[in-house]
Design a protein that fits this description.
Blueprint (H helix, E strand, L loop, with lengths): L13 H17 L20 H10 L4 H11 L3 E2 L2 E3 L5 E4 L3 E2 L8
Antiparallel strand pairs: 1-4, 2-3
Length: about 110
């Protein structure tokens, strides 16, 4: 993982991302150079990709053998459920468990 990646990194805050960006821009402007930034919000990009399509694309782009099997195993038989807890962490409600077919699990 590169230091410039701020998303989904434990202990990294939005304030650190803003500081790093601002510091980079000011550093360039202080040198009387032009500054430009490009922002791509990919936060939902993986929420809607179907597992079978992801596996197909990985295979197409030369991910084969053990590497592809590892991805298939990671995505196989994924299940999801929502639990609702009260403020004292006592479970108050749960949804039924359903197998999911899309959305790349993070963590």
């Amino acid at each position: 993982m590169v230091p410039e990646q701020f998303g989904i990194r434990k202990g990294i805050t939005i304030q650190q991302a803003i500081f790093t960006l601002t510091n980079s821009i000011l550093s360039v402007l202080n040198k009387q150079q032009q500054a430009g930034e490009m922002f791509c919000d990919l936060s939902r990009a993986f929420d809607y990709i179907r597992f079978n399509i992801l596996i197909f694309k990985l295979n197409h782009y030369a991910v084969h053998g053990t590497n592809l099997t590892c991805f298939q195993s990671y995505l196989a038989e994924r299940k999801n459920r929502v639990d609702i807890a009260s403020s004292n962490n006592k479970l108050t409600a749960s949804s039924s468990t359903k197998e999911i077919e899309y959305g790349v699990p993070l963590g």
